[in-house]
């Protein structure tokens, strides 16, 4: 008489599959559940300033749902670097009305490409390198935000200490000479093009 192999109860299988799919789509570990709101303290001790229920794609991380900014004591005053050179393959647009200006999730890819470019040319101390080198809150995946990500940060600046009256650099470039930055003044939130050798504030973010 052959023995019958008992399978797992159907309910158990469904629960396990749901947990796996949830973790993969969320782009997080079980210690980073999908239950944060804007203004909450994130898993790295930063501030959640963007939430997407549908998610957005981040190269090297898959689908993410949140953007988290470092605490206020992590910002610094530095330069973008290598004026006169177009960094290949990063987000580039000439007008702020262009679709690329509102992209979310591209800052990480751009930061890694900028860091690679600067290191190849022996340039140090740039905004992208500063953000990429951060290891705070137990996380080392911080990056220089794109202009679209900076715009989202500006919308929630009430939750971000000391974000007033500052010009913040993005990872988005306009051409070989200029990059995009955002003025955090509490009212207008104007966008500017600034030469790559000018120094301004930076505030690193991470996606998860």
Count, helices: 4
Uncertain segments are 1-31
Structural class: alpha+beta
Taking the alpha carbons of the first and last residues, their distance comes to 53 Å
Rg calculated over all Cα atoms: 20 Å
> What would you call the shape?
globular
Strand content: 15-25%
Described by strand count, sense and barrel closure, the largest sheet is: 3 strands, antiparallel
Overall helicity: 10-25%
Counted beta strands: 8
The main sheet orders its strands as: 1-2-8
Task: Name the helix and strand elements from N-terminus to C-terminus, one letter apiece.
Answer: HEEEHHHEEEEE
Tell me what the structure shows.
The chain has 208 residues and is of the alpha+beta class. It contains 4 helices and 8 strands. The strands form 3 sheets. The protein has a 3-stranded antiparallel β-sheet, sandwiched between helices. A hairpin with a 3-residue loop joins strand 1 and strand 2. The radius of gyration is 20 Å and the shape is globular. 36% of the residues are buried.
């Amino acid at each position: 008489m052959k023995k019958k192999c008992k399978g797992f109860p159907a309910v158990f299988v469904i629960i396990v599959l749901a947990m796996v799919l949830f973790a993969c789509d969320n782009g997080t570990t079980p210690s980073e559940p999908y239950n944060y709101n804007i203004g909450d303290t994130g898993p790295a001790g930063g501030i959640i300033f963007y939430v997407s229920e549908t998610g957005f794609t981040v190269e090297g991380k898959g689908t993410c749902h949140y953007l988290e900014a470092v605490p206020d004591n992590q910002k610094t005053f530095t330069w973008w670097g290598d004026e006169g050179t177009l960094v290949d393959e990063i987000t580039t647009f000439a007008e702020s009305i262009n679709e690329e200006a509102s992209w979310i999730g591209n800052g990480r890819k751009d930061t890694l490409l900028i860091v690679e470019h600067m290191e190849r040319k022996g340039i140090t101390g740039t905004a992208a390198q500063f953000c990429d080198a951060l290891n705070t809150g137990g996380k080392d995946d911080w990056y220089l935000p794109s202009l679209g990500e900076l715009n989202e940060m500006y919308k929630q600046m009430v939750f971000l200490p000391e974000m007033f009256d500052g010009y913040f650099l993005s990872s988005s470039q306009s051409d070989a000479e200029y990059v995009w930055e955002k003025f955090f003044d509490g009212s207008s939130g104007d966008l500017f093009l600034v030469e790559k050798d000018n120094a301004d504030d930076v505030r690193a973010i991470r996606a998860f």
